[in-house]
Amino acid sequence: MERHQELFADAVDPLDIAESLERSGIGPQTAARYRHSDAFSLAEELHARVPRRAAAPLPVEGEWRRRGGPALTAGAALAAVALLLWGLSVLSLPVPPGAQVVAFAGAAGLTLGRGLPLPERALFALGLGGLLALAQGAGPPQLALAADAGIAEWCARWYRHLGSGHVRSRSSREFRARMRPVLPGVVLVHLTGLSVLTAAALALPGAAGGYGAVAHAGTAAHAAWASRGAAWAVQCGAGTALLLALLLRHGDRTPTGLAALASACGCAALARVSPVHPDLTTWACVLTAGSFLPLAWLALLSPTAHRPATAIPLAVAVAGGSDGDGEPGP
Asked: 3-state DSSP call for residue 328?
């Protein structure tokens, strides 16, 4: 209890403690020395003895509103930046890539980076800004990718909510079994939303030609789908990297999310400076996102990625904690 007190104070339930014990090498033999049959039984006693940190109170609004508000704000802010850049390019006033990165980073820092420490917030916003600015040039695909940030934020919050519901599982094996199909489902939902946004954005130039062109917007989107394979490949790769970064950020795995953003930005920058082999660098973006997907899957299968936020420091919780009988905790 003394050795792992700070870790146990943040535990959501006995499953969370059992996961930590197993990672530290405590198995049935060690648990037997404390008169328990396995690590999970030992974790149940530790969970009962160690006082919890006080959890932050849940907002009064419902789950859908709590996820939808930040997601809508982020998507609208980033889409506004992309629409402005697109308008400037139409007016033959293109914005340099560096300035685009700064513009997207500013909007991302004000919306998607809230709640992070200042250094992580700055790096996270810069990574998101670089991905949105470098993956696609100013135009319909960039607008769709920027608006998709809102869908990715909603999906990341939804995944965290589902994990919080399954964290009451009886064992870490049961928790992982329940959560394994969730991430592929979330990725599928996100890519579906991204595809709809991209098709709609690609149809905008054709639909802007007049009333008669509106009837052919679907045909224009289909033609764009068939003729711009490289743009779609970059869109899927960048969108997946964006989703993984937000999933890892909401799962308290921000450094891993920053690594995914850095890798995706590197591939996008390579595509900008290597016009000789655009297809190769395009698929490099897709492979980068695909390589981080299993890593994110493993990182997010831990109950510690779904623990609620804490409200007071450990010293206060230990000093004022109770073991259930009105006596101070250990």
From this structure: strand
32-49, pLDDT tens digit by residue?
Answer: 878 787 777 777 777 777
Tokens 């230990």, residue located:
318
**How does DSSP assign 299-312, residue by residue?**
HTTSGGGGPPPB-S
Q: How far is CA 67 from CA 11, 167, 271, 309, in A?
A: 24, 19, 34, 16
**Helices 140-166 & 172-179 angle (0-180, nearest 10):** 150
3-state secondary structure 94-116: CCCHHHHHHHHHHHHHHHCCCCC
Distance of CA 94 to the CA centre of its chain: 31
Closest CA to 163 of 294, 16, 28: 16
pTM equals: 0.70
The 8-class DSSP code of residue 12 comes to S
Q: At what angle do helices 63-90 and 140-166 cross, to 10 degrees?
A: 170
Tokens of 25: 């090498």
| pLDDT over threshold 50, residue 263 | yes
Distance of CA 52 to the CA centre of its chain: 27
Q: Which of 254, 328, 303, 253 is nearest to 8 (CA)?
A: 303
Give the mean pLDDT of the chain: 74
Interior/surface letters 111-149, b for 16+ CB within 10 angstroms, e for the rest: bbbeebeeebbebbbbbbbbbbbbbbbbbbbbbbbbbbb
206's CB contacts (< 8 A; 6+ apart) are 213, 216, 217, 219, 220
Q: Scanning the structure block, which residue is given the tokens 């008669």?
A: 212
Q: How far is CA 116 from CA 107, 121, 245, 253, in A?
A: 15, 5, 13, 11
Give how far the C-alpha of residue 201 lies from the chain's centroid of Cα atoms, to the nearest Å: 24
